[in-house]
């Protein structure tokens, strides 16, 4: 679905909150979005400029499933299939995102939100940047953008990731397109981590039809049904970026980051600007859930994997629970190592058996309590590449953060390589069902 189709679907279900009174983009809109606790919202008049702004559109697995036309319990399989079988989208000559061309570039006319009291300024938070790596080809990814003035942003590039690598491979300005209000499948695909050389727009096409159109001033294809397209160039000029609220809900540090100059803007008629509340439920789910397929793929190469859950308590980024069908005494340890390969920013992972629900934190903690001996089942990997989102990691400007990583094998231990475990000794006791009402009636 494109953004407008999702808004209509949410409205029909009665799930869309509509704010008709004027709301300021300077912290007031963010406060309302936060107060709604993940409920989708459409502001009809964000000030200044009386622009429409949508937020919380993908704050639950149910709304993501709605946007992809899939059942919520079928999302993991759908994402894994798209990751494994990307498809090339069709290119169109006429696109909604190019219905109108702005006569001049004025980023201050966009309803870009300021979110918190220490923000460096207004930030684009739901923008998908598209670049072409000189060696591996197109890449689409989320990047927060600090508005500096009417023509320029400071773009946060995570070291070693796709956009940063492409930018480092050229000493010239790198052509860039920023997609605002992109179709749902594009947002999900842009949050995934396919191998280098796999175009995220091809993953989006595998999730749902995603026609693309050529930009008017840069040699890049963009989703034709986006609301707004900013065309420009990522320069090698640097500017301070931050502080800003990160996925963890804490403020990120100030860094020198590349300046993005916008030279051209196209858009739909009466466009809807999409905002994403930093540190909110949509931020967490949209960033975390699309990484689950890459963990599934990695763990599947070493053992039988059933389900993966990147947990909200781990900031939807740093912690995961992996459910496996254990067939060998070393499967738990192998799954730990594979999970870290599948999601490089993962910090802590817990491996559980098929009888433990990875989405139920009480069951996961119970498995740790009853099946783990720390000297046998806890594995620590010191001085590993980590996540810039982790405030406890070791941060050096211009270099990837480093951290210690820990895996917990909370599966039932096997006595020997050839003798399966005594599962009954580790099983949770269950009682037969009974209806209390029949016993409490007078």
Describe the structure.
By secondary structure, the protein is of the alpha+beta class. It has a domain of 135 residues: UbiD C-terminal domain-like, CATH 3.40.1670. Strands 5, 6, 7, 8, 9, 10, 11, 14 and 17 form a nine-stranded antiparallel sheet that branches. Strands 1, 2, 3, 4 and 18 form a five-stranded mixed sheet that branches. Strands 19-20-21-23-22 form a five-stranded mixed sheet, sandwiched between helices. Helix 4 packs across helix 7, helix 4 crosses helix 9 and helix 9 packs across helix 10. The mean pLDDT is 92.
Summarize the structure.
The protein is an alpha+beta fold. The protein is 25% helix and 28% strand.
Please tag this protein with its features.
442 residues; alpha+beta; UbiD C-terminal domain-like; 9-stranded antiparallel β-sheet; 5-stranded mixed β-sheet; 14 helices
Determine the structural class based on helices, strands and strand pairing: alpha+beta
Rounded Rg = 23 Å
Mean pLDDT: 92
Helicity level = 10-25%
Say which CATH homologous superfamily of the domain at 286-420 is assigned.
UbiD C-terminal domain-like
Assign the CATH topology of the domain at 286-420.
UbiD C-terminal domain-like
CATH architecture of the domain at 286-420: 3-Layer(aba) Sandwich
Number of strands: 23
List low-pLDDT spans. Answer: none
Largest sheet: 9 strands, antiparallel
**Estimated share of beta-strand residues:** 25-35%
């Amino acid at each position: 679905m494109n953004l407008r189709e999702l808004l209509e679907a949410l409205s029909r279900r009665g799930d869309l909150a509509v704010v008709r009174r004027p709301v300021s983009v300077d912290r007031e809109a963010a406060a309302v979005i936060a107060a709604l606790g993940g409920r989708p919202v459409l502001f009809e008049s964000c000030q200044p400029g009386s622009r429409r702004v949508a937020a919380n559109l993908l704050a639950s697995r149910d709304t993501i499933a709605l946007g992809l036309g899939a059942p919520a319990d079928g999302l993991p399989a759908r994402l894994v299939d798209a990751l494994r079988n990307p498809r090339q989208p069709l290119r169109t000559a006429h696109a909604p995102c190019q219905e109108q061309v702005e006569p001049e570039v004025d980023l201050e006319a966009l309803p870009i939100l300021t979110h918190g009291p220490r923000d460096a300024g207004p930030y684009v938070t739901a923008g998908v940047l598209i670049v072409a790596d000189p060696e591996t080809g197109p890449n689409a990814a989320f990047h927060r953008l600090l508005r500096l003035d009417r023509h320029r942003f400071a773009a946060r590039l995570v070291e070693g990731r796709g956009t940063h690598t492409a930018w480092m491979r050229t000493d010239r300005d790198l052509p860039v397109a920023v997609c605002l209000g992109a179709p749902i499948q594009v947002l999900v695909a842009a949050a995934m981590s396919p191998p280098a050389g796999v175009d995220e727009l091809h993953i989006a096409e595998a999730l749902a039809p995603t026609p693309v159109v050529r930009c008017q001033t840069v040699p890049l294809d963009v989703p034709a049904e986006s609301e707004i397209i900013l065309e420009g160039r990522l320069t090698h000029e640097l500017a301070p970026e931050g502080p800003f609220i990160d996925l963890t809900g804490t403020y990120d540090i100030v860094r020198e980051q590349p300046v993005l100059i916008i030279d051209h803007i196209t858009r739909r008629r009466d466009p809807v600007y999409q905002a994403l509340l930093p540190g909110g439920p949509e931020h967490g789910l949209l960033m975390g859930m699309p990484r689950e397929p890459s963990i599934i793929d990695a763990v599947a190469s070493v053992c039988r994997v059933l389900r993966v859950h990147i947990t909200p308590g781990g900031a939807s980024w740093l912690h995961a629970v992996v459910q496996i069908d254990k067939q060998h005494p070393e499967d738990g340890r192998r799954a730990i190592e594979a999970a870290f390969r599948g999601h490089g920013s993962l910090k802590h992972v817990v491996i559980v058996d098929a009888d433990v629900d990875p989405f139920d934190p009480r069951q996961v903690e119970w498995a740790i309590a009853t099946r783990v001996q720390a000297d046998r089942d806890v594995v620590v990997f010191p001085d590993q590449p980590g996540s810039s989102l982790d405030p406890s990691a070791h941060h050096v400007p211009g270099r990837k953060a480093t951290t210690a990583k820990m895996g917990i094998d909370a599966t039932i231990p096997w006595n020997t390589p050839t003798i399966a475990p005594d599962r009954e000794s580790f099983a949770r006791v269950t009682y037969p069902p009974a209806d209390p009402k029949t016993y409490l009636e007078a």
